[in-house]
């Protein structure tokens, strides 16, 4: 089904794709890389749906030049990747693995040579296992080790990385990794995981200072957000929705923008020391927004340990993850951020947005994914509408360039613009790749050179 022409975006809009180290790099035992919590988790029986791991993943470590060529063919002007902490500091601290840094230098120089801005995320969930053994993000010391790691990376790449992102989705890492146990490191602490939130944010603040000492490039954080919609209009349902919004959308934003932790969550804040909130609220240049879908919430059952119950939202198409496809939610979210934080809100970039479908090559080897084209078309239009509403949105990164290893789902969910045949590593651009290439080409013709 043909789509109407895409409306014009600002001339300096950042068009990009995103990936993460553990999901694509492979080379788990190459160049002195240390063990991460995801290595340990993935090799624990029963943790991953298909029993796979990221040991090889997409073999991006060896095929990065081919992947850069795919980026160049797409026409993007920015590439968001993550640095593997254990590839740089195998034990999380101490001795630097120079060959690991060499890989990221080759990657950064390679994308720059194709006119693409490197956007580096320092932590995309692959904590070095020795740090987890010492308590992980429950341990305040991890925040300081993170700042030291940021300093090491920025000392090598600070003159070339164009945007730094400290943390990726700290809410998801806290809730699924430490709260519910379905992601690495597999702990089940529920609301006792609050120290993980605080220490991640403290690490962000300390790393921000380290980055500014080494690099003149802007600094951001990438938060996951979901508009919260009460299912039911009773007072208990509305209270449940408010509690979930405070946890998911405000816990990692209010303190970043100088407003402290949401008091209504009632966390034991004994881990918060004098001066911590000032470190956390150091100004950032960009707020990264990762958006996939809204969430429905209602009042919980009486015996629930949580003050809310997530429930499916009806009336939307679904992805292979069974997530609702709701572009209206992205416009809603951006408007909420704009209204709530006002002048305190820095420019926004959509640092992840994408969808999983069961994409398969046809008899001619082509991969048609019209549902992904529809998804991207709708969400780009939602961003454009938010800009027209007065929200300062300066970029959109598709998740993801490649089909990849999708955490606890293993290889069963495909998000890529490029299909990957995992046994051979063969890359095949999908029809969504060609569609987005044409959208970007039209948009970038408007950019003066």
UniProtKB/TrEMBL annotation:
One of its GO terms (cellular component) is cytosol. One of its GO terms (biological process) is cellulose catabolic process. It is an enzyme of class 3 (hydrolase). Gene3D superfamilies: Glycosidases. Its EC number is 3.2.1.21. GO terms for molecular function: beta-glucosidase activity. This is Beta-glucosidase. The lineage of its organism: Bacteria, Bacillati, Actinomycetota, Actinomycetes, Micromonosporales.
């Amino acid at each position: 089904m043909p789509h109407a022409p895409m409306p014009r975006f600002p001339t300096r809009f950042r068009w990009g794709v995103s990936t993460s180290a553990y999901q694509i790099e492979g080379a788990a035992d190459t160049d002195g890389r240390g063990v991460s919590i995801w290595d340990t988790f993935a090799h624990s029986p029963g943790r991953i749906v298909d029993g796979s791991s990221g040991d090889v993943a997409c073999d991006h470590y060896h095929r990065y030049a081919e992947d850069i060529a795919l980026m160049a063919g797409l026409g993007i002007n920015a590439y968001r990747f993550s640095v593997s902490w254990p590839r740089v500091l195998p034990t999380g601290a101490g001795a630097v693995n120079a060959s690991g840094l060499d890989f990221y230098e080759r990657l950064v120089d390679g994308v720059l040579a194709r006119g693409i801005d490197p956007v580096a995320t320092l932590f995309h969930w692959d904590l070095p296992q020795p740090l987890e053994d010492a308590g992980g993000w429950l341990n305040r010391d991890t925040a300081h080790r993170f700042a030291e790691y940021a300093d090491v990376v920025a000392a090598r790449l600070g003159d070339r990385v164009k945007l730094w992102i400290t943390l990726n989705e700290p809410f998801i890492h806290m809730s699924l990794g430490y709260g519910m146990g379905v992601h690495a490191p597999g702990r089940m602490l529920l609301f006792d995981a609050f120290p993980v939130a605080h220490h991640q944010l403290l690490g962000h603040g300390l790393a921000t200072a380290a980055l500014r000492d080494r690099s003149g490039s802007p600094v951001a954080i990438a938060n996951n957000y979901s508009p919260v919609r009460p299912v039911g209009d009773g007072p208990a349902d509305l209270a449940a929705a408010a509690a979930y919004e405070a946890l998911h959308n405000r816990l990692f934003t209010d303190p970043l923008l100088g407003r402290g932790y949401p008091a209504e969550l009632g966390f034991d804040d004994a881990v918060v020391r004098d001066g911590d909130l000032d470190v956390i609220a150091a100004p950032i240049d960009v707020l990264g927004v990762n958006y996939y879908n809204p969430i429905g919430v209602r009042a919980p059952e009486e015996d629930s340990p949580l003050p809310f119950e997530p429930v499916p939202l009806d009336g939307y198409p679904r992805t292979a993850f069974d997530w609702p496809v709701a572009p209206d939610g992205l416009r809603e979210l951006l408007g909420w951020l704009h209204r709530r934080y006002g002048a305190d809100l820095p420019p926004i970039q959509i640092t992840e947005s994408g969808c999983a479908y069961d994409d398969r090559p046809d008899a001619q080897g082509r991969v048609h994914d019209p549902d992904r084209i529809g998804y991207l078309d709708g969400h780009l239009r939602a961003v454009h509408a938010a800009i027209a509403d007065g929200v300062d949105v300066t970029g959109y990164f598709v998740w993801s360039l490649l089909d990849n290893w999708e955490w606890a789902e293993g290889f069963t969910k495909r998000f890529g613009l490029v299909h990957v045949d995992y046994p051979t590593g063969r890359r095949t651009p999908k029809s969504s790749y060609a569609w987005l290439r044409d959208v970007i080409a039209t948009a970038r013709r408007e950019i003066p050179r």
